[in-house]
């Protein structure tokens, strides 16, 4: 199970669950059962969170939404926006205000 979770995080949530199960030598059902037992989440939910975390880092870096969507494995910018709103309750624009760029923070201090 540790290997499966590590692979999800290494792939930043973009690995298909069927491929993951095959790679770790488990059926999808057994992988789901073990993952739920260990984390309380399905493998797909763990992957969704990993993909969101990667997107969040890209938002914090100041990347454009279309570039974030492509780099984080979302089908398009609208998909990213829906997932972002679902996970945070905020729009990407609201989140950018909450995650100031490092350069902006330094300018405010200096």
What's the topology here?
Elements: H1 2-10, H2 17-23, H3 28-39, H4 43-61, H5 65-72, H6 77-88, H7 92-98, H8 102-109
Task: Give a written overview of the molecule.
By secondary structure, this protein is mainly α. The chain is built from eight helices and no strands.
Instruction: Summarize the amount of helix as a percent range.
Output: over 70%
Specify the oligomeric state: single chain
The total beta strand count reads 0
Q: Helix segment count?
A: 8
* Shape, per Cα inertia axes: elongated
Strand content is: under 5%
**Secondary-structure element series:** HHHHHHHH
Cα radius of gyration in angstroms: 16 Å
Distance between the termini: 48 Å
Low-confidence stretches: 102-108
What value does the average pLDDT take?
87
Which class best fits the helix and strand makeup?
A: mainly alpha
Largest sheet: none
Name the descriptors.
mainly alpha; single chain; 110 residues; disordered C terminus
Give a quick summary of the entry:
With 110 residues, the chain is mainly α. The protein contains 8 helices and no strands.
